[in-house]
Amino acid sequence: MSRLDQEKHYKMTTKNKYHHGDLRPSLLDAATETIKEGGVEALSLRKLAEKVGVSRTATYHHFKDKHDLLCAVAAQGFVTWREIEQEIFNNANVAINERYRQFVFRYIDFAANNPALYDLMFGSTLWKHDKSNQDLRDVAYPVFQHQVEMTKTWQENGILPEGENTLRLAQVTWGTMHGIARLLIDGVYADASSIEEMCECAVNVFLSAANRQ
Where is the HTH tetR-type domain (predicted)? Predict the structure, then answer.
């Protein structure tokens, strides 16, 4: 087979493999897996194309550069976490105080199981010096806004202190969870039992503060 025929065959195979616009999700999944295995440094558009089995040019149809790809991976991470949030918050079969407890524990669990992705979602790579793009901001900001809305509901139901400013309370509870997550990811407290006890303590502190009002 001549080189020209090989190129034609490659293009036809790629087109058949990734029709109906399913290449972008495949690239994102592969990029997320690469970051999970080797961190952000292990990812490049060239290596991603090789992993998925497409030409490097094909990746540029969806991401203009590595930074654009990283923003898309982080955005997908926020979508995943938002789905977890909604699953917890909307589960009417579970008592609302237990839902709050699940929220704290699932947040830490998400960070523990996806440390490299969590770093990308909340770290300086994409956020310091305003490096995030609009697509990422359009996904990430509503996720925190949803947490503010959950906090308001928890306040109204006596789960969290009702007298506190809702936005500030959401920021403080998030900051507490983020701090625990960082201790775990950075290896300061690598013992899972210590992290679990800290999560339980955080839940108890916020719930008891509500009860004291």
Answer: 21-81
Measured between alpha carbons, how far is 100 from 96 in angstroms, rounded to an integer? 6
| DSSP code string of 64-81 | SSHHHHHHHHHHHHHHHH
Say how far apart CA 31 and CA 50 lie, in whole Å. 11
Tell me what pLDDT residue 15 has.
46
pTM: 0.85
Whole-angstrom distance, CA of residue 63 vs CA of residue 25: 12
Q: Which domains does the chain have, with CATH numbers?
A: 15-63 (1.10.10.60), 76-211 (1.10.357.10)
Name the amino acid, one letter, at 28.
Answer: L
- Cα dihedral across residues 154, 160, 162, 167: positive or negative: negative
Mean pLDDT (whole number) for 9-14:
44
Classify 183 in phi/psi space as left (phi over 0), alpha (psi -120 to 50) or beta. Answer: alpha
